[in-house]
Design brief:
14 strands, 6-stranded parallel beta sheet, alpha/beta, 473 residues
Length: 473
């Protein structure tokens, strides 16, 4: 029996100091698509996801691997380098050849940063070239992929290739790639383009039906771009009994009440919205094309239709001042958001913001593990790095507190009681009890983040006091 080439695809974990990332583990689809295609072509393919394994990948895991493929984000690239070194050392000790390939958004944005650490660097979308790459057809050090015009050629992922796939709680499904907007801090358009490419809705449903009794997360950066197609997709979701799902959208969706109602009736339970800021000047600086009133209206509309709202806010734009942070915290506490995610504006490679910070000499360091939107890695205009970091922590601590969890629970009790009486004559949406539970849980997460990041807070204190750049973390 001929020996099959063993190919292991790895999604490394980011820095353990980002404890927030460990509580909603959704595997990246890239390794799943590529491993599925490799297995179909006759390779012995396996996927190791450190977040799902709940432990680091070690050399023993890779002893039989002939080709190691790593898909890395910016905060996980340094971990990817470590895995590649340990793998090559183990194979050398065994007297067997090794081959490492790195891909993903970090390698695609700045291949020069990783070219010396891996045998090959793959830039861009890999589905059309992965089999030829593994087979040795491409021998260049840097290999460029092609954007897929036909997303229907993307396979339905074979999750059995993922070790411990049974631990997945949220099942990712892609319906499109690309985004027509141009937010200055986002690397999506650089990676996938501004053109909005779509899968046939029938193919999306064929995949989603496999997970219809589970929680589905539509991973599109913007789930609603083409309204007619969205209507078709929602009807198929509803008619096929897919009852629990979430998606990422923009605020303008809330202006179409009929669409929001259909989303609710089709099983949408949570929307993830990048509100980004309540500072009008910051919204303009980021090219968000939305107002603070749009933000308020969106939260209310989705709540009125029984859909939870996870609001995402970015702190640290050049328009933000010391007053912006407490105002943002107060807004989130009083707005009725189910959950909130505060992020530090981060100069991710490939973005307009990264190029600006680098050209102005405002990057504090290039220790990539901290480029996770939870750590300050640049010098803000109107705040010290330490003040911005502490401001983010205060926002989290203010929202995720036991006091606010109890307050929400009491309010929800009376709202639910009132809706019970109104439901006798009219259709009403009962409020979700997710918010108080999330706030109770989030309190512990904030505590753990502080515990794991004491050294980084000390580093920010030093450079804030000295006013100097310092790469020694």
């Amino acid at each position: 029996m001929a020996h099959k080439t063993k190919v292991t695809f790895i999604e490394p974990a980011g820095a353990y100091s980002n404890v927030f990332a460990q509580y909603m583990t959704i595997p990246m689809l890239g390794p799943l698509y590529l491993a599925t295609l490799a297995a179909r072509a006759g390779f012995d393919a396996e996927i190791l996801n450190e977040n799902i394994l709940s432990r680091p990948v070690i050399a023993d895991d890779l002893a039989d691997t002939d080709i190691l493929c790593l898909s890395c984000l910016t905060p996980s690239i340094d971990r990817g380098r470590v895995i590649a070194r340990e793998y090559k050392a183990r194979r050398t000790a065994m007297g067997r050849p090794s081959r490492t390939i790195v891909g993903g958004i970090h390698a695609s944005m700045i291949p020069e940063d990783v070219v010396d650490d891996f045998d090959q660097v793959f830039v861009g979308e890999g589905e059309t070239k992965i089999v030829d790459l593994l087979s040795g057809k491409y021998t260049d050090k840097i290999v460029h992929g092609e954007r897929m015009d036909n997303l229907d050629a993307v396979p339905i992922p074979n999750y059995t290739l993922l070790r411990h796939w049974q631990k997945i709680r949220y099942w990712p499904v892609m319906t499109s790639r690309g985004c027509p907007y141009e937010c200055t801090f986002c690397s999506v358009t650089e990676m996938f383009g501004r053109g909005y490419r779509m899968r046939r809705v029938e193919q999306v449903i064929e995949e989603a039906k496999q997970y219809k009794n589970k929680w589905i997360f539509f991973v599109d950066d913007n789930f609603v771009v083409h309204k007619k197609r969205t209507d078709q997709l929602l009807e198929l979701v509803r008619s096929n009994g897919i009852k629990r799902w979430s998606c990422q959208i923009r605020v303008e969706v809330s202006r179409n009440l009929s669409l929001v109602r259909r989303m609710s009736e089709a099983g949408c339970r949570t929307v993830y919205i990048g509100f980004e800021s309540i500072n009008p000047a910051s919204l303009e600086e980021m090219h968000k094309n939305q107002t603070v009133e749009d933000v308020k209206n969106a939260i209310q509309v989705f709540r009125n239709h029984g859909i939870n709202v996870h609001g995402m806010f970015i702190l640290g734009s050049d328009a933000d001042t010391a007053e912006t942070i407490p105002l943002t915290s107060r807004f989130c506490r009083e707005s009725g958001l189910t959950s909130v995610q505060y992020m530090i504006l981060t100069p991710l490679p490939g973005t307009e913001f990264y190029r600006k910070m680098e050209s102005e000499g405002r990057l504090l360091h290039k220790n990539w593990q901290y480029y996770d939107a939870m750590h300050v890695v640049f010098r803000p205009r109107h705040l010290s790095p330490e003040a911005l970091q502490k401001g983010m922590i205060e926002c989290f601590s203010d929202f995720y507190s036991y006091t606010h969890a109890i307050h929400d629970a009491v309010n929800l009790f009376f709202i639910t009681l009132g809706n019970l009486f109104r439901s006798i004559r009219n259709k009403v949406y009962f409020p979700s009890w997710v918010s108080p539970l999330v706030k109770l849980f989030g309190k512990r997460v904030v505590h753990n983040w502080l515990r794991f990041n004491r050294a980084y807070l000390g580093y920010l204190n030093i450079i804030s006091v000295s006013g100097q750049k310092n790469d020694n973390l």
